[in-house]
Write a structure and sequence with these properties.
The complex is a heterotrimer.
Chain A (H helix, E strand, L loop, with lengths): L33 H5 L18 H14 L3 H4 L8 H10 L4 H13 L13 H13 L2 H16 L1 E2 L2 H9 L8 E2 L2 H5 L3 H4 L22 H5 L9
Antiparallel strand pairs in A: 1-2
Helix pairs in contact in A: 2-5, 2-7, 5-6, 5-7, 6-7, 7-8
Chain B lengths: L5 H13 L20 E2 L5 H6 L17 H9 L19 H21 L25 E3 L23 H9 L5 E4 L6 E2 L4 E2 L9 E7 H9 L5 H4 L15 E2 L5 E3 L3 E10 L10 E7 L12 E15 L8 E7 L6 H6 L60 H13 L8 E9 L2 H4 L25 E2 L23 H5 L35
Parallel strand pairs in B: 3-10
Antiparallel strand pairs in B: 1-8, 2-6, 4-5, 6-9, 7-8, 9-11, 10-11, 11-12, 12-13, 13-14
Chain C lengths: L7 E4 L3 H12 L4 E4 L10 H9 L58 E2 L40 H5 L13 H15 L5 H4 L20 H9 L5 H4 L14 E2 L34 H8 L4 E4 L2 E8 L5 E11 L5 E9 L3 E4 L2 H11 L25 E8 L15 E5 L14 E6 L8 H4 L5 H9 L15 H12 L2 E8 L8 E9 L5 E6 L4 H21 L2 E2 L11 E5 L2 E5 L2 E2 L30 E3 L14 H18 L1
Parallel strand pairs in C: 1-2, 1-9, 2-5, 3-15, 9-20
Antiparallel strand pairs in C: 4-11, 6-7, 7-8, 10-13, 10-16, 10-19, 11-12, 12-13, 14-15, 17-18
Helix pairs in contact in C: 1-8, 1-14, 4-14, 11-12
Classes of the chains: A mainly alpha, B alpha+beta, C alpha/beta.
Chain lengths: ~230, ~525, ~650
């Protein structure tokens, strides 16, 4: 006897507010001067980006480390108005592994005192990068390969264990496996953007774009505001 | 310094309110220069009102300060924002810019919802409205259904003319003689089957939910002026280089004058029966022309029904956000959230699209109805019985809980609207393009050299939508979730929208291939016949 | 609906099954579809999530049954596949099980593949895979090419030198209307002028959508082939040695504008394995349309296990096993059942269909299996052996910016026929838009751009791009990666395979699936005719790379089980092949009952109420992707069934 075919249920809860960067509002203050200026103007409509309030020093070091080694502008990895939160997400991911080498990397980065150039651009200069890379290598294999794992995480949204990378460096035929950090991380992989493309399976582009040359690589990895800004 | 000097701030504004134009028809689309703008835009924004007496941003539900009358008055009467005002700073230091801006957009969304749902014959009078008062957006002088624009046989649509479906003609004439106003709803597949044929939504009384799409005058004029209302026009040589670019809403910061720009709506209706309390819904009396069903013979009938508003998308193109601003509202009784289901602790006894008494075995959550989905003519928009004689009701759950901030703002606005039916509605969220280097590249506000709405010059057309996902439980019922590309996100989906190819795709000259079929984030153009 | 009422039972809801169901539904026939795999989900959240998390993104990766554990891994710590084909209820082959250590191991590979035939001749892997879900092999690329007229007449044209060839019992002119109907139904974008080569004509009408724009890689290769020295192209054996070779757009079931409620392509570069926005047609579209009629029902997770034929040689009923899985995909229960109809259609693909036919041996007329009086069921298994090559343009050349747009937008079809076909297999050329993404995995066991990225970050040289094995950082890294990635490209050759009697699908005597049914057993190898086609492909590749001034990075892995050595122009060359995913030939159509299994309407010669559809009916392989021809034949069959049921 045949039965009518019912549709399946959507399985249990999806992740809730994970994409929001919202903190509870715990104090109230009033915008100084708002009352005064309001009389003349109808309020501020600011497009300009303001630097975030004093960020966690470790998170900041992580972002500096990431920007330096990957060659992507820090403000592209972690914009001021950040709806994706990749920086914090990746920091928590690595921090959660409780590796002492991570603390080493953060300290080495803080000590390196990297210069983040202002826009347009924002790419940390090669001499600074090389200095940092050498300082990391000087601390030994473990931090060195961890740094590479972090680079690949930003580039591909996937975690390659430092031990896997170390084994591969010694034996090019070693089996290399990885774990995708999350679907979101996969879609935010920077390697594809370095190739002036997009992750396979995730395009933000319009029909026909592929028949034209892409924008300059600076549009992909540098922090540029073409308009006047306000 | 805390000030309760609402009046101090408000002095200029009260004058503005006094001089508030009733919502007149927006300036013709051709008048793009700011000098010609006469529309008085709503210039309120969230932080400003914080500067006054009221605390519209408290996240502590116990500390909800009653909104004082003059603030309430301002909010209820000021009208439509022409653009969203939002700033990265907020009253609480340390709050990330994204959160502050989100609040700004959410505030703008509520102002917009109020302005569009205000009475059509008294746009400042929402406080006095009844549940069945005709809203601004239901007025044929302000918004037009998409199906009245994309006509068959290359017929030219005119703004003044409402299209009466033949099946409804006699009923329409009869009601007209009785001086009874009726909304006309023409149904096609998309009127009951959610986008990309994801499914029909069946309420607790066995009726189909009905969806409709409307555009404002600005969009209409653009479509007609550029001959986009039929396929032949879209594909014509004169449109070969057209960069579809609907007029963006804009305001002058000093004068507050501007133009709202292009607005499109998608609404969902629930058919109200004797078992429903009509007073809880904004409702209209409608003549509904049922959709074609290829398994049936003859013409689909026209039926008269009371429709209750259960969902509303408002999409607004502005010069600061050329990727549009995407707002969604729902009736507060639609569905429970997933956290209520998991805790087995429901906030309400009754929902429009969920039965708390039915378990997940018998009523699988978010399941599409058993096929076939096409309404049967004789059933008059009641869903067919299942093989075992039972009736199917959709059992819908909101899979992504609303944020605390959203809930707070909803409570505050519900208290502002408390004496009206509109306090039964909640904002689901606002999605907006958050990457300024990206959106600034297209925005006239940032002085980008040429706003490039075909986005060929930008690696990312959507400019990091925030929040990443957004779904209305009545309009994107079956594609809720948080998986990129697959789960509902207004901008990720609409970024793929195109019209018909305006130019042959073959050819070697890159320049010739620039403007292929982009449609500026709307699926409306693909409905051209 | 009661069994007495059922007009047609269709086994399988892939291309052929869903199209036939939909056509018959429109004719108000009462249909029941049996689908071995899971039903169509309400959205593709689950598929996309699985894809994004997959650590090896093979064509089967998004779909159920899942290849992966909860971390997206397909292999455990010991390197064994997470999936045990002996436990999966309705299994399917996977590209993860094709390397030297697994392809012939029935405990790891779903297909039980033999390594030598009864004469101890070496057999090689059958490398093509399929999906087993409602909608069938939705992981296809979307290519919708028509065959060229000569493809239908291989015996008449070339049978003198190649005795294996047979003619089709239908020709291009007769099928043309159905090609057109199929193009409308699935929505093909193409350009008639561009596709009118080798006798292809379009009297029934044009494509419903304009062609997909080409890519920069397409144009670079087109340019390189514009001016050729005939002395260098003479080896092709064309009518005349070409002085230029056209790169043509690829007609594809991929929307170039809104079509039937689906979006236009947004270039997600992910057609295989799944289009995130369904701009590419897949059979769930027609399946859902079919199910939207009152008179159509589907039973998912229902595996047909036995076809019972009566004394009157008509099919009496189909027995099936219905199974249930828990939320982790584990088998938790099964029941047996049976279903009767007036007409039966088996649309289970060219491996599962002969498996079912050969498993069904009850009854006086079916001792050798159902529909098998010719003995041809399971014989003449064909694929398009796929020869891939990859290279890089010089740093002085303009980049071609791969990883953008559909996976393939253009190809070379003009070389698919000519006098050479008397001596060697023809080929069609795919131009890939995805650089070295999957091609490098055949050697390095990892895909790109991961391999290239890891090379320059980790200071290794698996790609052969990082000759001094430097580890780079910062701007030096992004610059190097950019310069290298944006100039990579790859091509692929689909080579015509002869219908060899030794290439077979049989039923294993030992290996079973999770339902206890014996699994398919494969014997497969390439004939000298086909290998000669690959040799020609290799030579063409060399010519193309020379004209591009490209560096050839093509390699064959040491342990590649498909490889062999050819002497070409005095050199020892390693050649290999992979699978194009085109499974054909195992119940071929023909006029003569002793030499074929079905007629041109795909009706069994033996059983009047049985139709066997899909590319299993193809008597020869041609070089074009089979899907459009599957669809055209399916529509023609549906029309026939509608008239007779």
């Amino acid at each position: 006897m045949t039965e009518r075919d019912h549709r399946d249920t959507v399985s249990a809860a999806q992740d809730g507010a994970g994409d929001h960067q919202v903190t509870a509002i715990s104090r109230r203050t009033v915008l100084a001067g708002a009352a005064a200026t309001a009389a003349l103007s109808f309020g501020v409509d600011a497009m300009a980006e303001t630097p975030p309030a004093a960020a966690d020093a470790n998170l900041d070091a992580f972002l500096n480390l990431s920007a330096a080694l990957t060659g992507i502008a820090k403000k592209m990895l972690a914009p001021d108005t950040d709806s994706l939160g990749m920086g914090k997400g990746y920091f928590d991911f690595v921090d959660g592994k409780k590796l002492s080498d991570f603390a080493t990397l953060l300290q080495v980065t803080k000590d390196a005192n990297l210069q983040i150039p202002p826009p347009p651009g924002g790419i940390i200069a090669q001499p600074d990068v090389d200095r940092l890379a050498k300082a990391i290598a000087d601390k030994g294999d473990a931090p060195k390969y961890l740094a590479r794992s972090i680079m690949l995480m930003w580039y591909l949204g996937a975690w390659y264990e430092p031990s896997v990378l170390k084994a591969l460096a010694k034996d090019p035929k070693a089996i290399v496996s990885y774990t995708v950090v999350s679907p979101k991380a996969y879609t935010q992989g920077w390697l594809w953007r370095v190739a002036q493309a997009h992750p396979m399976g995730y395009s933000d582009m319009q029909f026909g774009y592929w028949t034209r040359k892409p924008e300059e690589i600076s549009d992909f990895i540098e922090f540029r505001i073409k308009g006047k800004g306000a | 310094m805390r000030t309760r000097n609402w009046l101090g701030f408000g002095l200029v504004n009260i004058l503005a309110v006094a001089a508030l134009a009733t919502w007149s028809e927006p300036a013709a689309a051709q008048a793009q220069s700011q000098a010609a703008d006469t529309f008085k835009c709503n210039m309120l924004h969230a932080e400003q009102t914080v500067a006054g007496s009221t605390d519209l941003t408290s996240s502590d539900p116990k500390k909800l300060t009653p909104v004082n009358e003059s603030t309430k008055d301002l909010i209820l009467k000021f009208g439509l924002p022409c653009d969203a005002i939002n700033i990265p700073d907020g009253p609480v230091p340390g709050t990330p810019a994204a959160a502050n801006r989100q609040r700004g957009f959410d505030f703008y969304s509520w102002l917009t919802f109020i302005a569009l749902n205000a009475p059509a014959d008294d746009p400042t009078g929402i406080a006095k409205s009844s549940p069945d008062t005709k809203a601004v957006w239901e007025d044929g002088k302000m918004f037009k259904p998409l199906l009245d624009v994309m006509l068959a046989n290359n017929e030219l649509p005119t703004w003044e003319k409402a299209v009466i479906p033949p099946a409804c003609q006699s009923l329409y004439d009869e009601r007209k003689r009785e001086h009874k106003d009726r909304m006309l709803v023409k149904m096609i597949e998309e009127s009951f089957n959610e986008p990309f044929k994801t499914g029909a939504l069946i309420d607790q009384h066995n009726n189909y939910a009905i969806f409709d799409i409307l555009m404002n005058r600005v969009m209409f004029d653009y479509i007609v002026d550029h001959k986009l209302y039929n396929q032949q026009g879209q594909k014509s040589d004169e449109n070969a280089n057209l960069r579809v670019d609907f007029l963006g809403g804009h305001h002058d910061k000093m004068t507050g004058l501007g133009d709202p720009g292009a607005i499109m709506l998608k609404v969902s209706w629930k058919i109200l029966t004797d078992q429903d309390d009509k007073r809880k819904f904004h409702h209209v009396e409608a003549l509904v022309a049922m959709p074609e069903n290829s398994d049936e013979k003859g013409t689909p009938p026209c039926i008269e029904r009371t429709l209750g508003l259960v969902g509303m998308h408002i999409v607004h193109k502005t010069v600061s956000r050329p990727q549009w601003i995407w707002t969604s509202f729902e009736h507060a009784d639609n569905v429970p959230e997933v956290k209520e289901v998991q805790a087995h602790d429901f906030k309400k006894k009754y929902y429009n699209f969920f039965d708390p008494a039915c378990n997940a075995q018998k009523c699988p959550i978010n399941a599409t109805p058993p096929r076939p989905w096409d309404p049967e003519y004789a059933a008059h928009l009641q869903f067919h019985k299942m093989a075992d004689g039972k009736q199917f009701h959709s059992q819908i759950v909101r899979m992504v809980n609303l944020t605390d901030e959203t809930n707070t703002m909803n409570r505050q606005f519900q208290s502002i609207l408390s004496k009206t039916v509109w306090s039964n509605y909640i904002m689901i969220g606002t999605q907006w393009p958050s990457s300024f280097p990206c959106t600034g590249d297209h925005s006239t506000i940032s002085g980008a050299p040429v706003p490039k709405t075909d986005f060929d010059k930008q690696p990312d057309m959507n400019c990091a939508p925030a929040p990443t996902f957004l779904a209305n439980s009545t309009l994107e019922t079956f594609s809720q979730g948080t998986i990129p590309q697959a789960s509902s996100s207004c901008m990720a989906c609409h970024g793929n929208a195109t019209g018909y190819l305006r130019r042959s795709a073959s050819g070697t000259d890159e320049q010739k291939q620039k403007f292929m079929n982009q449609s500026d984030f709307t699926f409306m153009l693909e409905k051209a016949r | 609906m009661a069994d007495d009422d059922i007009d047609v039972v269709i086994v399988g809801s892939g291309f052929a099954g869903s199209l036939i169901a939909n056509e018959l539904a429109k004719e108000h026939k009462k249909i029941v579809i049996l689908e071995a795999g899971d039903r169509v989900p309400p959205n593709i959240n689950d598929y996309m999530e699985r894809f994004y998390k997959a650590s090896i993104k093979v064509p089967e990766s998004p779909y159920t049954p899942s290849l992966f554990d909860e971390n997206g891994h397909a292999f455990d710590d010991k390197g064994h596949p997470v999936e045990d084909p002996g436990k999966v209820a309705a299994g399917r082959p996977s590209a993860i099980a094709l390397d030297a250590s697994m392809w012939s191991d029935g405990t790891k590979s779903y297909l039980v593949q033999k390594t030598e035939d009864k004469d101890k001749r070496k057999l090689t892997p059958f490398s093509s895979t399929y999906d087993r879900v409602a909608g069938g092999t939705a992981h296809w690329l979307g290519t919708s090419l028509r065959f060229v007229p000569k493809d239908f007449r291989m015996k008449s044209e070339y049978g003198g030198s190649v005795p294996e060839f047979v003619d089709w019992p239908i020709d291009y002119d007769e099928l043309e209307k159905w090609y057109h109907d199929a193009e409308i139904e699935i929505g093909v974008s193409g350009n008639v002028a561009d596709q009118s080569f080798h006798g292809i004509k379009f009297p029934s009408g044009p494509y419903p959508m304009p062609q997909i724009p080409n890519s920069l890689t397409d144009r670079a290769i087109g340019k390189a082939l514009e001016k050729l020295d005939p002395a260098e192209t003479a080896f092709l054996g064309m009518e005349q040695a070409p002085t230029s070779i056209a790169v043509r757009g690829l007609p594809a079931a991929r929307n170039s504008q809104p079509y039937k409620g689906r979006r236009a392509c947004a270039g997600n570069t992910n057609c295989i394995p799944i289009c995130p926005i369904q701009a590419k047609y897949d059979p769930t579209v027609s399946l859902n349309d079919a199910l939207n009629h009152k008179n159509v029902e589907m039973m998912s997770n229902t595996v047909a296990s036995d076809i019972i034929v009566g004394d009157d040689k008509l099919v009496k009923e189909i027995r099936y096993i219905r199974y249930r899985l828990d939320s982790n995909g584990k088998l938790v229960g099964k029941v047996n059942g049976s279903i009767k109809a007036k007409t039966y259609v088996i649309a289970a693909n060219a491996i599962e269909t002969p498996r079912l036919l050969l498993m069904s041996t009850k009854g006086p007329h079916t001792k050798n299996g159902v529909a098998n009086s010719s003995g041809m069921v399971g014989q003449h298994l064909m694929d398009h052996p796929y020869y891939v090559a990859w290279g890089q343009l010089p740093m002085t050349a303009d980049p071609v910016y791969p990883y953008r747009g559909p996976l393939i937008t253009s190809g070379i079809g003009d070389l698919c026929d000519g006098p050479f076909r008397a001596k060697r297999g023809a080929f069609r050329v795919d131009i890939g838009n995805e650089a070295w993404n999957f091609v490098i995995a055949s050697v390095v066991k990892s895909s790109d751009p991961n391999v290239t990225a890891i090379d320059f970050i980790n200071g290794v040289n698996r790609s052969r791009l990082n000759s001094d094995s430097k580890a780079l950082f910062g701007p030096a890294l992004t610059d190097t990666l950019n310069r290298n990635l944006t100039r990579q490209f790859r091509i692929g050759f689909l080579v015509e395979q002869t219908p060899d009697p030794g290439n077979t699908v049989t039923v294993s005597k030992t290996f079973r699936d999770g339902l206890g049914l014996l699994r398919p057993e494969i014997s497969y190898s390439l004939s000298p005719y086909t290998k000669a086609g690959i040799v020609a492909a290799y030579k063409f590749k060399n010519l193309l790379f020379k004209m591009l001034h490209a560096t050839d990075f093509t390699r064959v892995g040491d342990d590649d089980p498909s490889k062999w050595v050819e002497t070409i122009d005095g050199q020892q060359v390693d050649l290999n092949y992979t699978g194009a995913g085109h499974i054909m030939g195992t119940y071929r159509m023909g006029r003569a009952e002793k030499d074929s299994v079905v007629d041109s309407f795909q009706k069994s010669h033996d059983h009047d109420n049985l139709y066997l559809v899909g590319s299993g009916t193809f008597p020869t392989s041609a070089t074009a992707n089979p899907t459009l021809t599957i669809a055209a034949l399916a529509l023609r069959t549906a029309d026939r069934i509608a008239k007779r049921v």
